[in-house]
Each structure stands twice: as structure tokens, then as C-alpha cells.
Amino acid sequence: MINNGTLSLPQLRQRLEALGCVTDAVDVASAPGRVDSRYRAVVLSGTKVRAHDQDHYRPLIDLVMTTDVPVFGICGGMQIIAVANGARLTPGSQRVGGYEVQVDVQDPLFAYVKPTVTVFHRHTLYVRAAPEGFRAIGRSEPAPVEFLRSDDGRIYGSQAHLEFRRDGMEILRGFTRLFQ
Questions:
Q1: Count of domains in the chain?
Q2: Span 104-111, average pLDDT
Q3: 21 carries an active-site annotation
Q4: What residues make up the domain containing 165?
């Protein structure tokens, strides 16, 4: 797990560990240059630094784009991935709490949820269109890209904080099945 400054890292780790994952957390400045064979996936947490600060996140972006393991960017982690690949962040209404999102249940990420999920948000910035090489796999009215996936199916992103709701836990379960 790459900790980009989220306050909810303990909850995110707890959720993944409850799913049988062994987690290791490092801050973005200490992220390795590459993922060695000990690691089967990379999770990027939410952020305190704005996702459009490409200089700050350059080593992390290089890691994400060159690793062979599945990657899941959550909240600001998704925004880092999207912006690095050409998406823009735009301001929108402030959302705090549970919100309904429509998801593409044919995607393996959503194997354990229904087409409408309730996820937790704490946001004012949104990705309005998936960047080239990615597609939106979840949407809501204020956020057309609630979830995204790379065309090769290796990189995922969630605008929501999946560590706080039951549906979020089940989406994390879907992610863990990609590498177990």
C-alpha cells in the first residue's frame, strides 16, 4: 500500500487484511522504484497533496505504469492515475457520506455487488472523462467516472473511499480475487 496521506489508512489496511491480504504500507516518498516478487498488488490510498502535482507523484506514476501486478487507486490514488494519463480534475459539489453509484457488474471488480452500490465519499474534485487507455466502469450523476479500469484490466480506480461501507468491502473483495 502506498500511503499518499490519507487519514483512513488504518481502516483500509484492516479491510484488506480481513480479506486475507498481508499488507505493507509505505509513504509516497518511500515507494520502491519497482515491485518485487514479494508483492502481488499495489494499492494507492487517498491524498493530501493534489493529484495534479505530477512532479511530486512522478516516481509513483512510473511505478504504477510499469509494474506487472494489479493496481487499485482509491480516491486521490485514482485521481493520480487518471491525471497522469491525461484526465482533468474538475471541481464539483461537495459530497460527504454514502452515495449511490451504478457499476458495470460484468467487470470482475464488481463480482460481489449489485448494479447499484452505496459507497462513501468525501470529495469536491472529480474526473469527468476516463483518460485514453481507460474506461469508466462506474458512474453517478455528479461523477461520470466513479470507477475506472485500464483497457488491459490491470489498473483500477475508485473515486469513493471503499474502506467505510459494506459495498466498498465487497468491491475490495473483487479486487483481491484478481491476484489470489
A1: 1
A2: 97
A3: no
A4: 2-176
